Amino acid sequence: MHNGNLKESIKFFSKMIEKNPNFAEAWNKRATVFYMLGEYDKSMTDINTTLKLEPRPFGAMDG
């Protein structure tokens, strides 16, 4: 993720979400970063949004 800097990755994916809130993969990627940082509640919130936008996304179902 973003040259190994997870905090910067969150900023990057958050900007993507701001520009296009219906882009499920941005939500999914940010969820992954939150998970990697141990922020599990935020990760689950983003995964739930991902699943609302795209009920069968491979990444969200695969982990």
Structural account:
It is a single chain. The chain has 63 residues and is an all-alpha fold. It has one domain (2-55): Serine Threonine Protein Phosphatase 5, Tetratricopeptide repeat. 73% of the residues lie in helices and 0% in strands. It has helices spanning 6-19, 24-36, 40-53, 58-62. Helix 1 packs antiparallel against helix 2 (24-36). The two termini are 15 Å apart.
Summary keywords:
63 residues; mainly alpha; Serine Threonine Protein Phosphatase 5, Tetratricopeptide repeat; 73% helix; globular
How would you summarize what this structure contains?
The chain has about 60 residues and is mainly alpha-helical. The chain has helices at about 5-20, 25-35, 40-55, 60.
